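Data availability (excerpt). The following record was deposited with the supplementary files.
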Amino acid sequence: MELRADPVYRLGYAVLGLFPVLLALWCIQIALGVDLPFRSEDFRQPPMERLLPAALVGAPLLALGFLLMARASSIGVTCTDEVIEISGRLWTRNVPTSRVTGIRRGLLGGVALRWKDQKGQSRLTRISAFSAFPFSRKAVLFAEHNARCVDALENWIDQHTSPPESWPPQYR
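Predicted structure:
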């Protein structure tokens, strides 16, 4: 089962990724002393004393921007019989399905996956795709979609997991 964040939410994060890219291009322009629009001859023989600052500032910003844009489409949760994959803005966490104990809905709109690590300690992994502060505009825009997705995830977990009998009742 795949549950993704609302399309408008994902589009917003893709657009957010444009800002570091534009900032990187602006920094490269200043560091190399070139005018817009960029032309290929501007980059054929750049002065070495300007190339290093352009690369040190521009490369990380470009990487961050492209990372945000690329990951925007996959923000959400993917469930299989073996693993639940939670894709956030910058990271992905894989939790074995057998270790999942449920969903935690916070008072302020946060949603997290509850699970047990190998040592048996309780862990929470925030599901940013479906988390929003209840008093924000974002929560109003995506509340119905998020509630549907969290309910579907809870139902899937209930159907596909069974807590070990060794766990105390409050963790089953």
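Summary of structural features: Strands lie at 2-4, 76-79, 83-87, 92-96, 100-105, 111-116, 122-126.
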